[in-house]
Amino acid sequence: xxxxxxxxxxxxxxxxxxxxxxxxxxxxxxxxxxxxxxxxxxxxxxxxxxxxxxxxxxxxxxxxxxxxxxxxxxxxxxxxxxxxxxxxxxxxxxxxxxxxxxxxxxxxxxxxxxxxxxxxxxxxxxxxxxxxxxxxxxx
Length: 139
Hints:
It is built from 1 helix and 11 strands, in the order H-E-E-E-E-E-E-E-E-E-E-E.
């Protein structure tokens, strides 16, 4: 029974990060779904939270999110470099936050350190039926 539960949890997290986002250098992020709950006062919407963990020098490929997604991200550990749309590249340190609006393109998402890990929590308000939260950015 325990093995079935672990397999189900692992499979549930697979749609979060497409294979195209992985890099042959082994520097890709680990993305884990940590919370999911329908919003009782907003029919058709859910809150979904993912923990994004970067090893030293780690990064994610440029990506987008569902058109319905509003995202609030906060850095839990270390520092994260981020660039959304045509805005400037910024470094966010532990305790700092940023948002992504529906339709935004996240061109840079990376650990700002080559020696220390970093972690961030991204909280999505998204259409409940959305299962793929991260998509490769169009070229």
